[in-house]
Amino acid sequence: MPDSNKNQALANIKERFALEVSDYYIKKALGKKWRDNKSTLKKQYFKKDISLEEKLRNVPPEMLRYQWEDAEVKSVQKVGRLQLFEITHRKKDGSPMTSEAGEIMEKLKEKKAEYEAIASTDNSVNLENIDNRIIIEVLGPKRYGRVRFQGSGVTPTQYFGSGSQQYMPSGSQAQPEFRG
Hints:
This protein is mostly helical. It folds into 2 domains: 72 residues, no CATH class; 87 residues, no CATH class. 57% of the residues lie in helices and 0% in strands. The longest helix is centred in the first third of the chain and has 23 residues.
């Protein structure tokens, strides 16, 4: 949501309500509501089998035309988890957000190159889950109940399937210690 719209909405809220919350919190909540609404509109109006020109003719009434055009153009490509890490950890000028993020990106690139080299010589290597394996190798397994780079609410079962052992501890680590 553009800052000018957030400021206008904030002014409207302050006129109507006496809130003891910071402006930052209100703007953050407005941004989330805006994104949620755009998602709902996209689900309602976006049809994959329609041409781009026809989609642009049927802009939802609650959505700004330039945002609809941007959403349509961007939704064509599918972004993997490695690409998502790269996109979300770079500044506008293309440099990494932090030196740690830069180091992680280098390790991810090296691991991906290793896997691709192995896959080119060995046909038995499955390239479908390569992003998942690379992320786990470089960053290690994270806490249970979430999937890195997939936002809030995405569980490992939803993302990997019910038979996934990606985030389960292995053998000796899973056994509790008892001292008697």
